[in-house]
Amino acid sequence: MEQQTTLLYDGSFDGFLCCIYMIYDEKIKNPFIRRESEKSQQLFENIEYVTTEKQKSKRVWQGFILKTTRKQQLDIFKTFLSEIKGVENTLFKYIQTVFNDNTKYLTDYGNKDILKISQVAKMVGREKHRMEAFVRFVLTKDNIYIATVTPDFNVLPLIIPHFKDRYADQKWVIYDVKRNYGIFYDLKTVETITMDYFSKLNHSISKEAYADKENSFQELWYTYYKNVNITSRKNKKLHHQHLPKRYWKYLTEKRKDL
User: Fold this and answer.
1) What is the DSSP string of 71-113?
2) pTM of the model
3) In the list 13, 38, 78, 222, which could disulfide-bond 121, CB 3.0-4.6 Å?
């Protein structure tokens, strides 16, 4: 059996696509794709370090686009953002099927790789919708709305269009504390940022950074939420089903209930 070649990449989607480019370009027969940040249990490995090059990743992605639907493309991206260990190799087999002109098999859910991608993409999609629904911003003294999140999956790239459209007239930051990066909208474009301040947080902004009126707004919203609830019609089981408790830390109206 031919020795396995481990391709180490930087963890980005472009880097992953560059791994696929290298596999085809160098005709690697037994590849295994792994992020540089992941530890290996193997003592001896034939390792190739993959350099991320936009031109190469673009060629791979354009080739994939030509043979697939928009939904299939989104499913691949969502599955990649799941960050599940080893998912790159499942995605590679899927993309390999496409490049081998076997696209008719992409809906064969008897295939374990195709089934896994479909299932994972749905899980990531649900997390995306929950972040869009449950993110709550805090107005800071520098007149920027900030929200901190710790999603199960790396969904920030997926929620950009929603928040850019909905809050087009405000400067805002949504920061993923777990992954230590965020997205910042400056009224024109959205860019990726990293800040040491956020890396020291758990999941909430210090009240010292609040704008003067922010505490009053939060108290007003909490009072309103409590008063519109009808105690006699409370259904805790249904409430937790639609609003899992792990998301309460984001919600101004629920933090006091934690």
Assistant:
1) HHHHHHHHHHHT--TTHHHHHHHHHHHHHTT-GGGTT-TTSHH
2) 0.85
3) 78
Q: Which residue has the tokens 């990743």?
A: 57
Tens digit of each residue's pLDDT (9 = 90 or more) over 82-116: 999 999 999 999 999 999 877 777 777 788 888 99
Which pLDDT tens digit goes with each residue over 142-195?
A: 889 999 999 999 999 999 999 999 999 999 999 999 999 999 999 999 999 998
Query: Could you please report the per-residue DSSP string of 206-224?
Result: -GGGB-TTHHHHHHHHHHH
Which residue type does 51 have?
Answer: T
Instruction: Answer whether 170's CB lies under 8 Å from 197's CB.
Output: no
Please give the Cα distance from 240 to 56 (Å, whole number).
Answer: 46
Whole-number pLDDT of residue 231: 74
Helices within the chain (DSSP H only): 13-25, 54-65, 70-81, 87-99, 112-134, 156-166, 196-199, 214-228, 236-242
Q: What residues are paired with 49 via a beta bridge?
A: 8
**Degrees to nearest 5, angle at CA 254 with 251 and 257:** 150
- Record the tokens describing residue 1, joined without a space: 């059996």
The more confidently predicted of residues 122 and 221 is 122
Q: Which two tokens stand for residue 219?
A: 């108290």
Contact status, residue 88 vs residue 45, Cβ threshold 8 Å = no
d(CA 258, CA 256): 6
